[in-house]
Amino acid sequence: MTDSVAHRYVAAINAQAADDLMALFADDAVLLHPVGQFEGKDAIGGFYRDIVFLGQARTEIVNHYALDGVEIAVLEATSPLDPNARSVHAADVFALNTAGTITQLEIFYR
């Protein structure tokens, strides 16, 4: 299932394609992340621009699960800015509306 929301999300992050990434989110989407809660496309876009893209994150899907209206992606992320840094392991839970856009993304990592 390479055309899943999770796969398109990872492709947009790796390409730093902000417009492609934001097209995946509903206008009133909510992002729940360990650094904070971001509501609406402007706030979510700022998070990706100021944190994820700035760190040049490279993300790979390790496992992917799709249920009715929900996708779960287990990810491994690295940054080329520090080749000695450890990878970050995350679980991203995507809640989708009937149009297939993200209404809520909850990210857990260690």
UniProtKB/TrEMBL annotation:
<protein>
    <recommendedName>
        <fullName>SnoaL-like domain-containing protein</fullName>
    </recommendedName>
</protein>
<dbReference type="InterPro" id="IPR032710">
    <property type="entry name" value="NTF2-like_dom_sf"/>
</dbReference>
<dbReference type="InterPro" id="IPR037401">
    <property type="entry name" value="SnoaL-like"/>
</dbReference>
<feature type="domain" description="SnoaL-like">
    <location>
        <begin position="7"/>
        <end position="103"/>
    </location>
</feature>
<dbReference type="Pfam" id="PF12680">
    <property type="entry name" value="SnoaL_2"/>
</dbReference>
